[in-house]
Write a structure and sequence with these properties.
80% of the residues lie in helices and 0% in strands. The chain is an all-alpha fold. The radius of gyration is 18 Å and the shape is globular.
């Protein structure tokens, strides 16, 4: 189960969208650890939805899918807020005060976790993945935990790769502390919000 979970995480956890932009932007402006913390939040959200899917928690999944429009709207507003915040800052605080590092790290984790958790459709993605790999709902706690842990390892592997590549590019091109980076990623975040809102109105 662990191996299948890792494969599912690798195949379906490819970084894209708002969290991918957040990870790149934070790696460029705040460093390697900031990127890893951002990816960690997204992986935690994926694990939660994978757990709902594999454990057959239909009460939770039905509730989330029934109210996914409202949840998506909340996520879109959050992404829009972060995009506007990026646009308003010419430069980022590359060297935060020591006392603020723990709080900043927690904020990075929670922000990406919230963005990831506001996509209830991910449950259906994992259900499809489980079916494709021949995994059915199981009451074996050990097997469920191994699968969920594998999903975490697989998805977080992608975030680690993205963060590492971004860090290498930052050092080679000396992109650290460039105010225009916040503008670029701010516009990207707003663009993702527009896509979310369009999907909501169309559906």
């Amino acid at each position: 189960m662990l191996g299948k979970g890792i494969c599912i995480g690798l195949l379906f956890g490819v970084p894209a969208g708002a969290v991918g932009s957040m990870t790149i932007q934070r790696t460029l402006t705040k460093g390697y650890q900031a990127g890893l913390l951002t990816g960690l939040g997204s992986s935690a959200a994926d694990c939660l939805y994978a757990a709902v899917g594999i454990c057959g928690l239909t009460l939770i999944s039905d509730f989330l899918l029934k109210h996914q429009a409202i949840i998506n709207l909340f996520g879109g507003c959050l992404i829009l807020t972060m995009g506007i915040k990026m646009l308003r800052h010419q430069t980022d605080a590359a060297n935060p005060q020591p006392g603020d590092r723990a709080a900043d790290g927690l904020k990075m984790f929670l922000s990406s976790f919230t963005v990831g958790i506001t996509n209830p459709a991910a449950i259906m993605t994992f259900l499809f993945a489980f079916s494709w790999f021949g995994i059915s709902g199981s009451r074996n706690l050990g097997a469920c935990l191994a699968l969920i842990w594998g999903v975490f390892l697989g998805t977080y592997c992608w975030w680690g790769i993205l963060t590492a590549v971004t860090e290498v590019m930052k050092r080679k091109r000396k992109l650290e502390n460039c105010g225009w980076l916040n503008h670029i990623f701010g516009f990207l975040m707003i663009a993702f919000t527009v896509v979310i809102f369009i999907r909501l109105f169309v559906s």
